[in-house]
Amino acid sequence: MAWTGFWGLPAGLLLLLPLLQPQPLTEGPLVFVAVVFRHGDRAPLASYPTDPHKEAIAAVWPRGLGQLTGEGVRQQLELGRFLRSRYEAFLSPEYRREEVYVRSTDFDRTLESAQANLAGLFPEAAPGRPEAAWRPIPVHTVPITEDKLLRFPMRSCPRYHELLREATEAAEYQTALEGWTDFLTHLENVTGLLLVGEPLRRAWKVLDTLICQQAHGLPLPSWASPKVLRTLAQISALDIGAHVGPPRAAEKAQLTGGILLDAILANFSRAQHLGLPLKMVMYSAHDSTLLALQGALGLYDGHTPPYAACLGFEFRRCLGDPDEDAGNVTISLFYRNDSTGLPLPLSLPGCPGACPLARFRQLTAPARPPAHGVPCHGSHEPATPAATVVPLLAGAVAVLTALSVGLGLLAWRPSCLRAWGGPV
């Protein structure tokens, strides 16, 4: 399915954006970093009625469906070590709570991924440390039903469902769906699933189960040929595109990934204006989180982020002018989706290379929630007000506490996103 980003750039051009020339890392000192990463390898989220391996679930995945695996732990350890090598000169050698804040969704696999990542990032949390030297590092979260920042989908936003319905009723989407009618009928027959109502979402779940089983050495049923897997991947891409792409991609982003993007910018500004020692904010989440954020940045390329994929924001201060508001801060983006290679430098559409902060804000403004909030209860109802920023308390300790409470909540707006299989 061909579509354009909300800046009007064709998808083919967006695919080329990560391949721009590497960004120089010596333009000025690093002052702030935000990283958003997907959890590591996990067991499948579900089975299907004719699954030949459903009786072996307890043996293959003893911790249960949807849980982080040993391979997932290893992937996050490796990601943490990558972050340590990249920021060796920026972060303190050991964890300092005033420098690093970690937020996760309230799922076992993301909480465990955050802990494993931190074990790679900080030596005192590393596995194998003597008992007296080992120190756990806190990971913050909120209940799933209250997570307005990292958990997509949220199911309480009628306006988002209006936008999604507009996308799925478009001629291009319907034509693609009609082309898969015979395939989906065949999939019903071989899986025992009833693909009615949300056929693409349920087809995605079949793909997820097959991929997880294949990755762990289980033979796939005879009907699950490479061609079937490719078709399932195309179906998944169509569904994701409807969620984060046109039409009205910017308005969708305001209700999903734009919230997180706004929070990252707000946390940087607040830390700088208050002179706080905060250096890094880490978010442990899902592929749906990264997809929504990529959509808000205009960088979704039709591919699902793999396990332990990491999208990073690096804020640097240009030399010679200490005034952040004068436009001397730049933002560089990187995307690490392969542990065997270097991360890909990304460029925001319309701003090649390291982007001046003021320009970055200007370009992303259509995808970020406006200060007055956005309507979430229908196109004819008033906007829901933005959440009030946590009041600043007197004293450095009180300010740090207020910031730590607000790190995941700044720039919150009503958010929702229909599941393309739920948080995965």
Automatic annotation (TrEMBL):
InterPro entries: Acid_Pase_AS, His_Pase_clade-2, His_PPase_superfam, Histidine_acid_phosphatase. GO terms for biological process: lysosome organization; negative regulation of ERBB4 signaling pathway; negative regulation of neuron projection development; negative regulation of protein processing; odontogenesis; regulation of neuronal synaptic plasticity. Residues 1-22 form the signal peptide. It catalyses: a phosphate monoester + H2O = an alcohol + phosphate. The chain crosses the membrane at residues 389-412. GO terms for molecular function: acid phosphatase activity; protein tyrosine phosphatase activity; receptor tyrosine kinase binding. Keywords: Glycoprotein, Hydrolase, Membrane, Signal, Transmembrane, Transmembrane helix. One of its GO terms (cellular component) is postsynaptic membrane. It is an enzyme of class 3 (hydrolase). SUPFAM superfamilies: Phosphoglycerate mutase-like. Its EC number is 3.1.3.2. Belongs to the histidine acid phosphatase family. This is acid phosphatase.
